[in-house]
Amino acid sequence: MRLRYFPNGITYWGWQASPISGLGLGDESQDTKCRTLLRFDDAHRYVPPTAVVTAAELSVTFVNWNQPLLVQACYLTRLWRHQLMGSEDRFSSTGWAYSQWNGTASVPWSAPGGWADCSPNINISFVVPANGINGYWTQTIPLDPGMVSSWLTANGSANYGLMFRCGGWLLWAGALWAEDRDGPYS
Q1: Beta partners for 74?
Q2: Taking CA atoms, which of 22, 57, 133, 184 is between 20 and 30 Å from 86?
Q3: 34 and 116 in contact (C-beta within 8 Å)?
Q4: Cβ burial, residue 142 (10 Å; 0-12/13-18/19+)
Q5: What's the domain of life for this entry (predicted)?
Q6: Of 110, 117, 83, 90, whose CA–CA distance to 1 is shortest?
């Protein structure tokens, strides 16, 4: 399992070909091997409390050179948090088996991979192209205004964000390069 965390709210992990003992795929197939969690921490502080969300969208850029990949996304229904406490093993926090570390123990997802903790009502899917010439692909994803609005109420207490999954490895561009004004997003 690979686990990466960036301070901008993105955590991602994936299933490796050689499984780690005790971490099964659950109901997942080998074809959905990577996950990315994305949450907009403190979004409720930037939107006035009386605002009404009538439309929302998310633009993301991926690096994909190899083959077109189907990406699915869902709205999560439970808290997840990546944090490492002192000498804590990185696999006891957010990843394939666990949604978070609560300070004393790892809290498992409802099923390995976390997809069972998605809202069954609204799902998102799109294909990230590949052609061997241009590796950067920007996708603009319409978001459900009701779900986005729920992220803002009660001081963001239900802001669980999105989970993305795909059957191959995609690099999320822009998250780390957004600060680099000389980079591809200047």
Answers
A1: 123, 163
A2: 22
A3: no
A4: exposed
A5: Eukaryota
A6: 90
Q: Which residue has the tokens 């948090």?
A: 81
Q: What are the pLDDT digits (tens) for 87-100?
A: 555 556 777 788 88
User: What is the structure's pLDDT at 136?
Assistant: 85
148 Cβ contact partners less than 8 Å away, ≥ 6 residues apart: 53, 56
* SS3 category, 139: strand
Determine phi and psi for 168, rounding to 5 degrees: -155, -175
Q: Can you give the residue ranges of every domain in the chain?
A: 2-54+73-124+143-170
Tell me if the pTM is above 0.90: no
The token pair at 47 is 């939107």
**Distance between CA atoms of residues 186 and 55, nearest Å:** 26
Identify whether the C-beta of residue 148 lies closer than 8 Å to the C-beta of residue 140. no
